[in-house]
Specification:
This protein is an all-alpha fold and 276 residues long. 66% of the residues lie in helices and 0% in strands. It contains 18 helices and no strands. α3 crosses α5 and α10 runs antiparallel to α11. It starts with a helix and ends with a helix. The relative contact order is 0.13.
Length: 276
């Protein structure tokens, strides 16, 4: 791991603990036969998470025809992917304290948007979609560790990160590492698969990684797209300005990608309900 990234873990008490429900939700990605009821039962082990899921299922976004009062009914209303992915987001976000220098709701909205775009890109590039979603969700968590130590510097990065994809270079200049490097260290501390740790480590400059990592490329592209969405910039334009070489290397069909993004709509529209 990068020495510059590891310095953010010198205070062992600051290391977040991966929630048990989150760990089991992550393991469920490897079970092709997992059922809605099994996921609902798992979520039921966390009363706070259960209440959030029920509130979400009863929201106008899902237009329930009747009051949903059980997790099994909520599972039916949300569907397996939405239920698991948003519950995982709630679990992981809950593992981190509120930190100065970052707007909590905006941060997690961006992270969920990154995760959703990582899933879209993974389907286009034939990378595992579930792993891509989780990695996209986790990508900026290293920035939370950075903000615990250097809140003013992180706030300064965010104030100047107006161009999609610019967060990486701004952090490299100020810290000697990026949030992706710190996330790689966090993922290693949490015993995530080595392939995911490496993808985080290479996400800053995927074109320089050897061997080339498709997952790292997906993560970098997904964050640029999430930045573009936050700043209301055309996604194809953002990619061609920020990472034209990477777009060309992957032969990305930007018109198709843009259509998929439009079809996905407001991919982070549920985040506020899950964070409160």
């Amino acid at each position: 791991m990068s020495a510059a990234a590891e310095k953010f873990f010198k205070n062992n008490n600051a290391l977040p603990t991966m929630p048990e429900v989150a760990s089991r939700l992550i393991r469920s990605f490897d079970d092709d036969n997992i059922s809605l009821n099994a996921i609902a039962e798992l979520i039921g082990k966390d009363s706070t998470l259960s209440a959030k899921v029920l509130r979400l299922a009863n929201s106008a976004r899902y237009s329930p025809s009747h009051q949903i009062s059980s997790l099994n009914d909520a599972a039916g209303a949300l569907g397996l992917d939405t239920l698991r992915n948003l519950s995982l987001a709630a679990c992981i976000s809950g593992a981190f304290p509120v930190v100065k220098g970052l707007d909590r709701a905006l941060f997690w909205r961006h992270s969920i948007t990154t995760a959703a775009y990582a899933r879209i890109l993974s389907q286009m590039l034939r990378v595992d979609a579930d792993t891509s979603y989780l990695a996209g969700l986790m990508l900026r968590t290293g920035q939370l560790m950075m903000a615990m130590e250097e809140p003013a510097m992180v706030a300064d990065v965010e104030a100047n990160a107006a161009e999609p994809g610019s967060r990486f270079s701004l952090e490299e200049h100020r810290f000697g590492c990026t949030h992706a490097d710190v996330t790689a260290s966090l993922a290693a501390h949490w015993h995530f698969p080595a392939t995911m740790v490496e993808a985080f480590k290479d996400a800053n400059t995927p074109m320089e990684s050897r061997p080339f990592s498709l997952m790292a490329a997906v993560l970098h592209l997904a964050e640029v797209l999430a930045d573009a969405a936050e700043h209301h910039v055309n996604p194809a334009q953002a990619l061609m300005v920020a990472v034209p070489e990477l777009v060309g290397h992957l032969h990305l069909d930007l018109a198709y990608l843009e259509a998929k993004i439009v079809a996905a709509g407001d991919v982070a529209g549920d985040v506020e309900q899950l964070l409160h």
